[in-house]
Protein backbone atom coordinates (compact mmCIF):
# COMPACT_ATOMS: atom_id res chain seq x y z
CA UNK A 1 0.00 0.00 0.00
CA UNK A 2 2.99 2.30 0.15
CA UNK A 3 3.86 4.51 -2.80
CA UNK A 4 1.50 6.99 -4.40
CA UNK A 5 -2.14 6.93 -3.34
CA UNK A 6 -4.22 4.66 -5.58
CA UNK A 7 -5.88 6.56 -8.38
CA UNK A 8 -9.37 5.13 -7.99
CA UNK A 9 -11.19 4.72 -4.72
CA UNK A 10 -10.67 1.48 -2.89
CA UNK A 11 -13.55 -0.81 -3.68
CA UNK A 12 -16.56 0.01 -1.50
CA UNK A 13 -17.08 -3.10 0.49
CA UNK A 14 -19.49 -4.41 3.02
CA UNK A 15 -17.93 -7.72 3.85
CA UNK A 16 -14.51 -9.11 4.63
CA UNK A 17 -14.34 -11.01 1.36
CA UNK A 18 -15.01 -8.05 -0.96
CA UNK A 19 -12.11 -6.04 0.45
CA UNK A 20 -9.65 -4.34 -1.80
CA UNK A 21 -7.01 -6.91 -2.69
CA UNK A 22 -4.32 -5.20 -0.62
CA UNK A 23 -6.48 -5.30 2.46
CA UNK A 24 -7.34 -8.86 1.57
CA UNK A 25 -3.65 -9.69 1.77
CA UNK A 26 -3.43 -8.22 5.28
CA UNK A 27 -6.55 -10.04 6.33
CA UNK A 28 -5.23 -13.33 4.96
CA UNK A 29 -2.00 -12.78 6.85
CA UNK A 30 -3.92 -12.10 10.02
CA UNK A 31 -5.99 -15.23 9.56
CA UNK A 32 -2.80 -17.25 9.12
CA UNK A 33 -1.98 -16.42 12.73
CA UNK A 34 1.61 -15.31 12.15
CA UNK A 35 1.16 -12.05 14.07
CA UNK A 36 0.10 -13.82 17.25
CA UNK A 37 3.27 -15.42 18.70
CA UNK A 38 5.21 -13.27 21.12
CA UNK A 39 8.40 -13.71 19.11
CA UNK A 40 6.81 -12.26 15.96
CA UNK A 41 5.53 -9.20 17.81
CA UNK A 42 8.90 -8.74 19.51
CA UNK A 43 10.75 -8.93 16.18
CA UNK A 44 8.50 -6.32 14.58
CA UNK A 45 8.86 -3.98 17.56
CA UNK A 46 12.64 -4.38 17.41
CA UNK A 47 12.54 -3.69 13.67
CA UNK A 48 10.57 -0.52 14.32
CA UNK A 49 13.18 0.50 16.88
CA UNK A 50 15.92 -0.15 14.31
CA UNK A 51 14.03 1.92 11.76
CA UNK A 52 13.94 4.90 14.12
CA UNK A 53 17.54 4.54 15.30
CA UNK A 54 19.09 3.93 11.89
CA UNK A 55 17.25 6.80 10.20
CA UNK A 56 17.38 9.47 12.86
CA UNK A 57 19.01 12.09 10.63
CA UNK A 58 16.50 11.56 7.82
CA UNK A 59 13.60 11.71 10.26
CA UNK A 60 14.87 14.95 11.80
CA UNK A 61 15.33 16.41 8.33
CA UNK A 62 11.76 15.51 7.32
CA UNK A 63 10.34 16.98 10.53
CA UNK A 64 12.30 20.16 9.90
CA UNK A 65 11.01 20.34 6.34
CA UNK A 66 7.43 19.94 7.51
CA UNK A 67 7.34 22.24 10.52
CA UNK A 68 10.83 23.75 10.89
CA UNK A 69 10.83 21.56 13.98
CA UNK A 70 13.96 22.27 16.03
CA UNK A 71 16.15 19.17 16.35
CA UNK A 72 15.93 19.38 20.14
CA UNK A 73 12.12 19.38 20.15
CA UNK A 74 11.97 16.67 17.51
CA UNK A 75 14.25 14.39 19.51
CA UNK A 76 12.35 15.00 22.72
CA UNK A 77 8.77 14.84 21.49
CA UNK A 78 9.01 12.42 18.59
CA UNK A 79 12.06 10.16 18.86
CA UNK A 80 12.49 9.81 22.63
CA UNK A 81 8.77 9.32 23.26
CA UNK A 82 8.67 6.69 20.54
CA UNK A 83 11.77 4.77 21.59
CA UNK A 84 10.65 4.88 25.25
CA UNK A 85 7.31 3.43 24.20
CA UNK A 86 9.06 0.72 22.21
CA UNK A 87 11.38 -0.18 25.11
CA UNK A 88 8.44 -0.27 27.47
CA UNK A 89 6.37 -2.49 25.17
CA UNK A 90 9.26 -4.84 24.43
CA UNK A 91 10.06 -5.28 28.14
CA UNK A 92 6.45 -5.77 29.21
CA UNK A 93 5.11 -7.71 26.25
CA UNK A 94 5.34 -11.13 27.89
CA UNK A 95 3.49 -10.09 31.03
CA UNK A 96 0.82 -8.21 29.06
CA UNK A 97 0.15 -11.33 27.00
CA UNK A 98 -0.32 -13.59 30.02
CA UNK A 99 -3.84 -14.76 30.84
CA UNK A 100 -5.31 -12.83 33.75
CA UNK A 101 -6.89 -15.21 36.25
CA UNK A 102 -10.05 -14.04 38.04
CA UNK A 103 -11.82 -14.91 41.29
CA UNK A 104 -14.07 -17.99 41.15
CA UNK A 105 -17.30 -19.06 42.79
CA UNK A 106 -17.80 -22.43 44.44
CA UNK A 107 -19.63 -23.65 41.34
CA UNK A 108 -16.60 -22.85 39.14
CA UNK A 109 -13.79 -23.63 41.58
CA UNK A 110 -12.28 -26.44 39.52
CA UNK A 111 -12.38 -24.46 36.29
CA UNK A 112 -9.75 -22.25 34.68
CA UNK A 113 -11.29 -18.77 34.62
CA UNK A 114 -9.23 -16.09 32.98
CA UNK A 115 -9.14 -13.13 30.62
CA UNK A 116 -7.24 -13.80 27.43
CA UNK A 117 -6.08 -10.83 25.35
CA UNK A 118 -6.48 -11.54 21.66
CA UNK A 119 -5.66 -9.31 18.69
CA UNK A 120 -8.56 -7.57 16.97
CA UNK A 121 -7.51 -8.20 13.35
CA UNK A 122 -6.66 -5.56 10.75
CA UNK A 123 -6.74 -2.11 12.30
CA UNK A 124 -6.57 1.33 10.72
CA UNK A 125 -4.43 4.12 12.20
CA UNK A 126 -5.06 7.66 10.91
CA UNK A 127 -2.59 10.32 12.05
CA UNK A 128 -2.39 14.14 12.02
CA UNK A 129 0.52 16.37 11.01
CA UNK A 130 1.61 18.10 14.22
CA UNK A 131 3.76 15.27 15.58
CA UNK A 132 3.72 13.33 12.34
CA UNK A 133 6.09 10.57 13.44
CA UNK A 134 5.05 10.00 17.04
CA UNK A 135 1.30 10.13 16.44
CA UNK A 136 1.60 7.67 13.58
CA UNK A 137 3.92 5.15 15.19
CA UNK A 138 2.96 5.21 18.88
CA UNK A 139 -0.46 3.69 18.16
CA UNK A 140 1.31 1.24 15.85
CA UNK A 141 3.43 0.04 18.78
CA UNK A 142 0.21 -0.87 20.62
CA UNK A 143 -1.26 -2.51 17.52
CA UNK A 144 1.85 -4.64 16.89
CA UNK A 145 2.25 -5.53 20.58
CA UNK A 146 -1.34 -6.73 20.64
CA UNK A 147 -0.74 -8.92 17.57
CA UNK A 148 -2.69 -7.05 14.89
CA UNK A 149 -2.11 -6.26 11.24
CA UNK A 150 -2.38 -2.55 10.49
CA UNK A 151 -3.03 -0.03 7.77
CA UNK A 152 -1.23 3.19 8.61
CA UNK A 153 -2.38 6.53 7.18
CA UNK A 154 0.04 9.43 7.80
CA UNK A 155 -1.11 13.01 7.33
CA UNK A 156 -0.70 14.35 3.80
CA UNK A 157 -0.04 17.80 5.26
CA UNK A 158 3.30 16.80 6.77
CA UNK A 159 4.44 15.62 3.35
CA UNK A 160 8.14 15.03 3.99
CA UNK A 161 7.41 12.72 6.94
CA UNK A 162 4.65 11.01 4.98
CA UNK A 163 7.10 10.32 2.12
CA UNK A 164 9.73 9.03 4.51
CA UNK A 165 7.34 6.72 6.35
CA UNK A 166 6.04 5.32 3.06
CA UNK A 167 9.62 4.52 2.14
CA UNK A 168 10.93 3.22 5.48
CA UNK A 169 8.05 1.23 6.99
CA UNK A 170 7.91 -1.39 4.20
CA UNK A 171 11.70 -1.77 4.47
CA UNK A 172 11.65 -2.56 8.18
CA UNK A 173 8.27 -4.13 8.95
CA UNK A 174 6.57 -7.15 7.43
CA UNK A 175 4.78 -6.00 4.27
CA UNK A 176 2.32 -8.83 4.66
CA UNK A 177 1.16 -7.36 7.97
CA UNK A 178 1.58 -3.59 7.85
CA UNK A 179 0.78 -1.22 5.00
CA UNK A 180 1.14 2.53 4.58
CA UNK A 181 -1.67 4.26 2.71
CA UNK A 182 -1.03 7.79 1.49
CA UNK A 183 -3.43 10.55 0.64
CA UNK A 184 -5.71 13.25 1.96
CA UNK A 185 -9.40 13.42 2.87
CA UNK A 186 -10.66 11.81 -0.36
CA UNK A 187 -8.32 8.83 -0.16
CA UNK A 188 -9.06 8.45 3.55
CA UNK A 189 -12.80 8.49 2.90
CA UNK A 190 -12.38 5.78 0.27
CA UNK A 191 -10.22 3.79 2.65
CA UNK A 192 -12.87 4.10 5.34
CA UNK A 193 -15.42 2.40 3.12
CA UNK A 194 -13.55 -0.81 3.85
CA UNK A 195 -14.17 -2.86 6.89
CA UNK A 196 -11.57 -2.72 9.67
CA UNK A 197 -11.54 -4.34 13.06
CA UNK A 198 -10.66 -1.10 14.82
CA UNK A 199 -10.10 2.49 13.75
CA UNK A 200 -7.64 4.58 15.73
CA UNK A 201 -8.07 8.22 14.72
CA UNK A 202 -6.04 11.21 15.90
CA UNK A 203 -7.16 14.60 14.63
CA UNK A 204 -9.83 17.24 14.79
CA UNK A 205 -13.31 16.92 16.22
CA UNK A 206 -14.97 17.84 12.94
CA UNK A 207 -13.28 15.07 10.94
CA UNK A 208 -13.94 12.66 13.82
CA UNK A 209 -17.66 12.91 13.00
CA UNK A 210 -17.12 11.56 9.49
CA UNK A 211 -14.84 8.85 10.87
CA UNK A 212 -17.64 7.79 13.21
CA UNK A 213 -20.19 7.80 10.40
CA UNK A 214 -17.98 5.59 8.27
CA UNK A 215 -17.28 3.29 11.21
CA UNK A 216 -20.99 2.94 11.96
CA UNK A 217 -21.59 1.24 8.61
CA UNK A 218 -19.53 -1.76 9.73
CA UNK A 219 -20.03 -1.27 13.49
CA UNK A 220 -16.29 -0.81 13.81
CA UNK A 221 -15.02 0.16 17.26
CA UNK A 222 -13.19 3.48 17.25
CA UNK A 223 -10.62 5.25 19.38
CA UNK A 224 -10.74 9.01 18.97
CA UNK A 225 -7.76 11.09 20.04
CA UNK A 226 -9.07 14.60 19.57
CA UNK A 227 -8.25 18.11 20.65
CA UNK A 228 -10.08 21.04 22.11
CA UNK A 229 -9.21 23.91 24.37
CA UNK A 230 -6.89 22.93 27.24
CA UNK A 231 -7.03 25.49 30.06
CA UNK A 232 -4.14 26.64 32.23
CA UNK A 233 -5.42 27.94 35.55
CA UNK A 234 -3.09 29.97 37.80
CA UNK A 235 -4.47 30.64 41.24
CA UNK A 236 -3.38 31.72 44.73
CA UNK A 237 0.23 31.89 45.87
CA UNK A 238 2.43 30.69 43.05
CA UNK A 239 6.04 30.84 41.96
CA UNK A 240 5.17 33.13 39.09
CA UNK A 241 8.59 33.05 37.41
CA UNK A 242 8.71 29.24 37.29
CA UNK A 243 5.03 29.07 36.29
CA UNK A 244 5.63 31.48 33.41
CA UNK A 245 8.66 29.53 32.17
CA UNK A 246 6.81 26.21 32.27
CA UNK A 247 3.75 27.70 30.60
CA UNK A 248 5.76 29.34 27.85
CA UNK A 249 7.59 26.09 27.16
CA UNK A 250 4.37 24.05 27.07
CA UNK A 251 2.49 26.58 24.94
CA UNK A 252 5.11 27.52 22.35
CA UNK A 253 6.69 24.06 21.96
CA UNK A 254 6.06 23.13 18.29
CA UNK A 255 4.73 26.71 17.84
CA UNK A 256 1.66 25.89 19.88
CA UNK A 257 0.62 23.11 17.50
CA UNK A 258 0.16 20.51 20.24
CA UNK A 259 -3.18 18.95 21.15
CA UNK A 260 -2.16 19.28 24.83
CA UNK A 261 -0.80 22.85 24.61
CA UNK A 262 -2.40 25.24 27.10
CA UNK A 263 -4.96 26.90 24.83
CA UNK A 264 -5.83 29.80 27.15
CA UNK A 265 -4.97 30.97 30.67
CA UNK A 266 -7.33 31.75 33.51
CA UNK A 267 -6.22 33.88 36.47
CA UNK A 268 -7.32 36.79 38.61
CA UNK A 269 -6.58 40.33 37.47
CA UNK A 270 -3.97 40.68 40.25
CA UNK A 271 -2.19 37.52 39.08
CA UNK A 272 -2.34 38.72 35.49
CA UNK A 273 -0.43 41.87 36.48
CA UNK A 274 2.54 39.80 37.63
CA UNK A 275 2.10 37.01 35.10
CA UNK A 276 2.36 39.12 31.93
CA UNK A 277 5.85 40.54 32.71
CA UNK A 278 6.96 37.04 33.75
CA UNK A 279 5.67 35.56 30.45
CA UNK A 280 7.37 38.36 28.51
CA UNK A 281 10.65 37.68 30.30
CA UNK A 282 10.41 33.91 29.77
CA UNK A 283 9.73 34.42 26.06
CA UNK A 284 12.73 36.70 25.73
CA UNK A 285 14.94 34.24 27.65
CA UNK A 286 13.83 31.36 25.43
CA UNK A 287 13.51 32.93 21.97
CA UNK A 288 15.36 36.26 22.21
CA UNK A 289 14.08 39.70 21.29
CA UNK A 290 13.40 38.68 17.67
CA UNK A 291 11.91 35.16 17.80
CA UNK A 292 11.75 34.96 14.00
CA UNK A 293 15.51 34.55 13.90
CA UNK A 294 15.52 31.98 16.70
CA UNK A 295 16.12 28.40 15.47
CA UNK A 296 14.25 27.00 18.48
CA UNK A 297 10.81 28.04 17.25
CA UNK A 298 8.82 25.93 14.78
CA UNK A 299 6.76 27.37 11.94
CA UNK A 300 3.04 27.01 11.18
CA UNK A 301 2.54 23.88 9.11
CA UNK A 302 0.90 25.40 6.01
CA UNK A 303 -0.27 28.71 4.52
CA UNK A 304 -3.88 27.62 5.17
CA UNK A 305 -3.22 27.08 8.86
CA UNK A 306 -1.26 30.36 9.03
CA UNK A 307 -4.24 32.23 7.51
CA UNK A 308 -6.67 30.60 9.94
CA UNK A 309 -4.57 31.71 12.91
CA UNK A 310 -4.10 35.24 11.58
CA UNK A 311 -7.87 35.49 11.04
CA UNK A 312 -8.48 34.48 14.64
CA UNK A 313 -5.93 37.01 15.85
CA UNK A 314 -7.37 39.71 13.59
CA UNK A 315 -10.91 39.13 14.85
CA UNK A 316 -9.89 39.07 18.52
CA UNK A 317 -10.90 42.05 20.62
CA UNK A 318 -8.15 41.24 23.14
CA UNK A 319 -5.10 43.45 23.63
CA UNK A 320 -1.77 42.09 22.41
CA UNK A 321 0.79 42.55 25.19
CA UNK A 322 3.58 40.37 23.81
CA UNK A 323 4.34 39.45 20.18
CA UNK A 324 1.74 39.88 17.46
CA UNK A 325 4.24 40.05 14.57
CA UNK A 326 3.94 37.67 11.64
CA UNK A 327 5.34 36.83 8.22
CA UNK A 328 3.22 34.95 5.70
CA UNK A 329 6.04 33.80 3.45
CA UNK A 330 7.91 32.31 6.40
CA UNK A 331 4.67 30.88 7.91
CA UNK A 332 5.82 32.68 11.06
CA UNK A 333 3.72 33.97 13.92
CA UNK A 334 5.55 35.41 16.92
CA UNK A 335 4.71 33.94 20.30
CA UNK A 336 1.80 36.16 21.20
CA UNK A 337 0.04 36.90 24.49
CA UNK A 338 -3.25 38.77 24.76
CA UNK A 339 -5.12 40.21 27.75
CA UNK A 340 -8.66 41.58 28.11
CA UNK A 341 -9.97 38.58 26.25
CA UNK A 342 -13.61 37.81 26.92
CA UNK A 343 -15.52 34.54 26.84
CA UNK A 344 -17.13 35.40 23.51
CA UNK A 345 -13.87 36.43 21.83
CA UNK A 346 -12.91 34.91 18.46
CA UNK A 347 -9.96 33.21 20.17
CA UNK A 348 -12.39 31.31 22.39
CA UNK A 349 -14.49 29.98 19.47
CA UNK A 350 -12.23 27.08 18.55
CA UNK A 351 -9.01 25.34 19.51
CA UNK A 352 -6.22 27.81 18.71
CA UNK A 353 -3.51 25.25 17.82
CA UNK A 354 -0.87 27.93 17.28
CA UNK A 355 1.44 30.35 19.15
CA UNK A 356 -1.31 32.63 20.47
CA UNK A 357 -2.08 32.69 24.19
CA UNK A 358 -5.13 34.59 25.45
CA UNK A 359 -5.52 35.37 29.15
CA UNK A 360 -9.00 35.53 30.64
CA UNK A 361 -9.51 36.92 34.13
CA UNK A 362 -11.80 35.29 36.68
CA UNK A 363 -12.71 36.56 40.12
CA UNK A 364 -12.23 33.45 42.19
CA UNK A 365 -11.25 29.79 42.27
CA UNK A 366 -14.92 28.79 42.06
CA UNK A 367 -15.50 31.05 39.02
CA UNK A 368 -12.48 29.54 37.29
CA UNK A 369 -13.78 26.02 37.92
CA UNK A 370 -17.21 27.06 36.65
CA UNK A 371 -15.62 28.53 33.50
CA UNK A 372 -13.89 25.22 32.80
CA UNK A 373 -16.96 23.13 33.58
CA UNK A 374 -19.22 25.16 31.26
CA UNK A 375 -17.16 23.99 28.28
CA UNK A 376 -16.26 20.71 26.58
CA UNK A 377 -14.13 18.45 28.76
CA UNK A 378 -10.53 19.25 27.79
CA UNK A 379 -7.81 16.84 26.75
CA UNK A 380 -5.57 18.23 29.49
CA UNK A 381 -5.96 20.66 32.35
CA UNK A 382 -3.08 22.49 34.01
CA UNK A 383 -3.28 24.14 37.40
CA UNK A 384 -0.52 26.32 38.82
CA UNK A 385 -0.50 27.02 42.54
CA UNK A 386 1.68 26.61 45.64
CA UNK A 387 -1.42 25.57 47.54
CA UNK A 388 -2.32 21.89 47.45
CA UNK A 389 -5.88 22.77 48.49
CA UNK A 390 -6.28 24.73 45.24
CA UNK A 391 -4.84 21.92 43.14
CA UNK A 392 -6.96 19.27 44.84
CA UNK A 393 -10.11 21.32 44.49
CA UNK A 394 -9.65 21.75 40.73
CA UNK A 395 -8.68 18.08 40.41
CA UNK A 396 -11.81 16.94 42.19
CA UNK A 397 -14.30 19.36 40.67
CA UNK A 398 -13.35 19.14 37.00
CA UNK A 399 -13.08 16.41 34.37
CA UNK A 400 -10.32 16.24 31.73
CA UNK A 401 -8.35 13.64 29.77
CA UNK A 402 -5.20 14.40 31.78
CA UNK A 403 -4.36 16.66 34.71
CA UNK A 404 -1.03 18.22 35.64
CA UNK A 405 -0.19 20.58 38.44
CA UNK A 406 2.51 23.21 38.02
CA UNK A 407 3.52 22.15 34.52
CA UNK A 408 2.17 21.38 31.08
CA UNK A 409 2.29 18.62 28.42
CA UNK A 410 4.94 16.65 30.33
CA UNK A 411 2.46 13.97 31.45
CA UNK A 412 2.41 12.46 27.98
CA UNK A 413 6.03 11.36 28.34
CA UNK A 414 5.16 8.62 30.87
CA UNK A 415 4.06 5.34 29.27
CA UNK A 416 2.49 4.26 32.57
CA UNK A 417 -0.16 6.97 32.28
CA UNK A 418 -3.05 6.49 29.85
CA UNK A 419 -3.18 9.20 27.21
CA UNK A 420 -6.57 10.18 25.85
CA UNK A 421 -9.52 12.48 26.16
CA UNK A 422 -12.92 12.38 27.75
CA UNK A 423 -16.20 13.59 26.25
CA UNK A 424 -15.49 15.94 23.34
CA UNK A 425 -11.70 15.58 23.66
CA UNK A 426 -11.77 11.91 22.74
CA UNK A 427 -12.74 8.32 23.44
CA UNK A 428 -10.31 5.70 24.62
CA UNK A 429 -6.64 5.93 25.41
CA UNK A 430 -3.20 4.55 24.60
CA UNK A 431 0.50 4.72 25.59
CA UNK A 432 2.13 1.75 27.29
CA UNK A 433 -0.21 -1.00 28.44
CA UNK A 434 -3.20 1.18 27.54
CA UNK A 435 -2.25 0.98 23.85
CA UNK A 436 -1.92 -2.79 24.09
CA UNK A 437 -5.37 -2.94 25.70
CA UNK A 438 -6.92 -0.65 23.08
CA UNK A 439 -5.86 -3.01 20.31
CA UNK A 440 -6.80 -6.20 22.20
CA UNK A 441 -10.06 -7.98 22.77
CA UNK A 442 -10.44 -9.17 26.35
CA UNK A 443 -11.87 -12.63 25.86
CA UNK A 444 -13.63 -14.11 28.89
CA UNK A 445 -12.50 -17.73 29.13
CA UNK A 446 -13.84 -20.52 31.32
CA UNK A 447 -12.25 -23.90 30.72
CA UNK A 448 -14.43 -26.51 32.40
CA UNK A 449 -13.95 -30.18 33.09
CA UNK A 450 -16.47 -32.71 34.28
CA UNK A 451 -16.12 -32.22 38.02
CA UNK A 452 -18.97 -31.33 40.39
CA UNK A 453 -21.67 -32.71 38.15
CA UNK A 454 -23.91 -33.19 41.19
CA UNK A 455 -23.53 -29.52 41.98
CA UNK A 456 -24.34 -28.72 38.35
CA UNK A 457 -27.47 -30.77 38.73
CA UNK A 458 -28.84 -27.99 40.87
CA UNK A 459 -29.43 -25.85 37.74
CA UNK A 460 -31.21 -28.44 35.64
CA UNK A 461 -34.99 -28.89 35.49
CA UNK A 462 -37.13 -29.84 37.17
CA UNK A 463 -36.65 -26.48 38.91
CA UNK A 464 -37.31 -26.41 42.67
CA UNK A 465 -37.09 -23.63 45.21
CA UNK A 466 -34.69 -25.54 47.45
CA UNK A 467 -32.30 -26.01 44.48
CA UNK A 468 -32.47 -22.26 43.83
CA UNK A 469 -31.33 -21.50 47.38
CA UNK A 470 -28.26 -23.75 46.99
CA UNK A 471 -27.52 -22.28 43.58
CA UNK A 472 -27.65 -18.73 44.91
CA UNK A 473 -25.00 -19.73 47.43
CA UNK A 474 -22.65 -21.64 45.09
CA UNK A 475 -22.74 -18.89 42.46
CA UNK A 476 -22.76 -15.96 44.87
CA UNK A 477 -20.05 -13.63 46.06
CA UNK A 478 -19.97 -15.17 49.52
CA UNK A 479 -18.53 -18.36 48.04
CA UNK A 480 -16.04 -16.44 45.87
CA UNK A 481 -12.45 -17.75 45.92
CA UNK A 482 -9.49 -15.57 45.06
CA UNK A 483 -7.67 -16.71 41.94
P1 LIG B 1 -7.42 16.49 10.69
O1 LIG B 1 -8.59 15.94 11.36
O2 LIG B 1 -7.58 17.54 9.66
O3 LIG B 1 -6.58 15.32 9.97
C1 LIG B 1 -6.18 14.14 10.62
C2 LIG B 1 -6.18 13.00 9.62
O4 LIG B 1 -7.47 12.85 9.07
C3 LIG B 1 -5.23 13.18 8.45
O5 LIG B 1 -4.54 11.97 8.22
C4 LIG B 1 -6.13 13.54 7.30
O6 LIG B 1 -5.65 13.08 6.06
C5 LIG B 1 -7.42 12.85 7.65
N1 LIG B 1 -8.59 13.58 7.16
C6 LIG B 1 -8.73 14.91 7.03
N2 LIG B 1 -9.97 15.20 6.59
C7 LIG B 1 -10.63 14.03 6.46
C8 LIG B 1 -11.95 13.67 6.06
N3 LIG B 1 -12.83 14.58 5.70
N4 LIG B 1 -12.28 12.37 6.08
C9 LIG B 1 -11.39 11.42 6.45
N5 LIG B 1 -10.14 11.72 6.83
C10 LIG B 1 -9.75 13.00 6.83
O7 LIG B 1 -6.53 16.94 11.88
P2 LIG B 1 -5.23 17.72 11.82
O8 LIG B 1 -5.46 19.13 11.37
O9 LIG B 1 -4.25 16.90 11.07
O10 LIG B 1 -4.83 17.74 13.39
C11 LIG B 1 -5.23 18.76 14.24
C12 LIG B 1 -6.23 18.30 15.26
O11 LIG B 1 -5.84 17.09 15.83
C13 LIG B 1 -6.34 19.26 16.43
O12 LIG B 1 -7.67 19.40 16.78
C14 LIG B 1 -5.57 18.58 17.53
O13 LIG B 1 -5.95 18.96 18.83
C15 LIG B 1 -5.87 17.16 17.25
N6 LIG B 1 -4.82 16.31 17.79
C16 LIG B 1 -5.13 15.47 18.80
C17 LIG B 1 -4.13 14.69 19.36
C18 LIG B 1 -4.41 13.73 20.49
O14 LIG B 1 -3.54 12.92 20.76
N7 LIG B 1 -5.53 13.79 21.15
C19 LIG B 1 -2.84 14.78 18.88
C20 LIG B 1 -2.58 15.65 17.84
C21 LIG B 1 -3.57 16.40 17.29
From TrEMBL:
One of its GO terms (biological process) is aldehyde metabolic process. The keyword Oxidoreductase applies. The keyword Lyase does not apply. GO terms for cellular component: cytoplasm. Gene3D superfamilies: Aldehyde Dehydrogenase, Chain A, domain 1, Aldehyde Dehydrogenase, Chain A, domain 2. InterPro entries: Ald_DH/histidinol_DH, Ald_DH_C, Ald_DH_CS_CYS, Ald_DH_N, Aldehyde_DH_dom, Aldehyde_DH_NAD(P). Pfam families: Aldedh. Residues 28-444 form the Aldehyde dehydrogenase domain. The active site is at residues 225, 259. GO terms for molecular function: 3-chloroallyl aldehyde dehydrogenase activity; aldehyde dehydrogenase (NAD+) activity. Keywords: NAD, Oxidoreductase. Belongs to the aldehyde dehydrogenase family. This is Aldehyde dehydrogenase. The lineage of its organism: Eukaryota, Metazoa, Chordata, Craniata, Vertebrata. The gene is aldh3b1.
Amino acid sequence: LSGPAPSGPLSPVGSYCQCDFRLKKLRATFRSGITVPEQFRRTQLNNLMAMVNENEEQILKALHQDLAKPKFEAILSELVILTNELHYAISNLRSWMQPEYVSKSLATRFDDCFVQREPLGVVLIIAPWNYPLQLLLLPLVGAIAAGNCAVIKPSEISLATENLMAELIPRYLSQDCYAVVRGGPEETKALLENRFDHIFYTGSQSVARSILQAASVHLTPVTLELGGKCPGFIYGHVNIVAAARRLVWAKFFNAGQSCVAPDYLLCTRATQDTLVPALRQALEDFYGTNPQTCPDLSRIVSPRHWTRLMNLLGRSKGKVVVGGESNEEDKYIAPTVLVDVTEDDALMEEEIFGPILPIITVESLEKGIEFINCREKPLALYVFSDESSVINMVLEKTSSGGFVSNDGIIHMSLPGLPFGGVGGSGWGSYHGRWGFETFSHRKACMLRGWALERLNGLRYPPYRDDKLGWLRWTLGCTSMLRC
